[in-house]
Design a protein that fits this description.
Two copies of one chain form a homodimer.
Chain A: H1 2-13, H2 18-25, E1 31-35, H3 42-55, E2 60-64, H4 65-72, H5 80-99, E3 103-107, H6 113-122, E4 128-134, H7 137-143, H8 148-153, E5 175-178, H9 184-197
Parallel strand pairs in A: 1-3, 1-4, 2-3, 4-5
Amino acid sequence: MAEQKATNVTWHDHTVTKSERQKLKGHKSAVLWFTGLSGAGKSTVANTVDHLLHSKGIHTYVLDGDNIRMGLNKNLGFSAEDRAENIRRIGEVAKLFADSGTFVLTAFISPYRVDRDRARQILGEGEFIEVYVNASLATCEGRDPKGLYKKARAGEIKGFTGIDDPYEEPLKPEITLDSDGKGIDDLAAEVVQYLKDNGYLSA
Amino acid sequence: MAEQKATNVTWHDHTVTKSERQKLKGHKSAVLWFTGLSGAGKSTVANTVDHLLHSKGIHTYVLDGDNIRMGLNKNLGFSAEDRAENIRRIGEVAKLFADSGTFVLTAFISPYRVDRDRARQILGEGEFIEVYVNASLATCEGRDPKGLYKKARAGEIKGFTGIDDPYEEPLKPEITLDSDGKGIDDLAAEVVQYLKDNGYLSA
C-alpha cells in the first residue's frame, strides 16, 4: 500500500501545470476560433495573425484544413455526423494546445452554432475567442479561390455551406471582421489589437 | 485569375514554418513515445522527463490517458478497431505538436507494433523516439496501482494487455528502460541523456 501511495505522490509532484507552461512562454494561451464562409478569408487572416504573433515571440500554432483533413480527420466525410465530429475533434485538439501554453488559431467554416459552442464550453473562461470573418456570399462566391462555389452551383458538390447548407452566424463573437470592406493586413491587425487590449499578450 | 494567384502568394508568404517555430523555442522537436505494460511506469517516467525538460526551458507537452481519454478519444471504446483508432489519433496529435516545435511525450500502453509503427511513419526522420518502459508482468502486477490486474484476473476486465491480450515488445526502440531494476529518477535521466547525446536539445 505504501508503495502505491508513493508512486502517486511522485506523479503529482512532477506534473508541469498549465500556468508553468504559460510562464515559460511568457504569455497566456487561448484559442482564436475563425469561422465564416468558404472564401471569407479565414485561413489567410489566421495565418497572417499567426505570422504577426510569431514575430513578436508568441508561441502559436494554426489548425486548418491543410494539417487536419489529411491527418487526424482523414477518416471523416461530410455527413452531418462526420461534420460534427470534425469540429469536436478540432475543439479537443485546440484545448490541448491551449493547455500546453500555445496560442492556437483554428480556421474552419464551422457553420453550426452548436458545434462552435461546444468547443467554447470545453475551454476555460476567456480561452475561446470567436472570430467571425464576415463576408457576403456574393463576395465569397466572387473570390471562389478553389472553384468550389462554381462546383456547388453546378450541383457537383452537395451540402455546400451558403449554397444548399446553412451558415449560422455567431450571435456574440468576440471579434467580427469586415472581410468585404477591408484588406487582410488590416483584419489581422484588428485581431492582434484585440489580444493586446484584453491582456492576452502578457503572462 | 490574377486575384486568385495573389491570394495564394499572400497565404504562403505568411505561413510560419516548422523550423521557424523551432527556432523561437530554441530546440528541435520530436515525439517521445512511451510504451509498455500497465504499471510499467510510462506516465510517471514521462511526467518526470517532462518536468526535467521544462525546468531546462524546453517547450514540452504530455499526452496521456488523463487528457486524451476524456476528451479527444472519449467516443472510443476498447474494441480492436477503437484501440487502433485511439493510437492513430494520438499519433496524429503528436505530429501536430511536433510540427508546432514542441517536445511531446505520449504515455499509452500502445501494445501493437503495427499501431506504433504507423505513428512512426507519419513523423519525420528522427522525430519518433520509441521509449520502451520494460518491466516484467510480475513487477507490473505486483504494483497494480489502479487495481486493474486484479480485476483482469477476476475476469471483470476483458482483453487486458498482458493477461488476455498480447503486448508486442518494440523490436528496435530508440530507448529501453529497465523499470524492474531502476528508480524513476534514474530512468528519466536516461531519457534526457539520450536527447542530449543525439542533439535534440539544441536548435
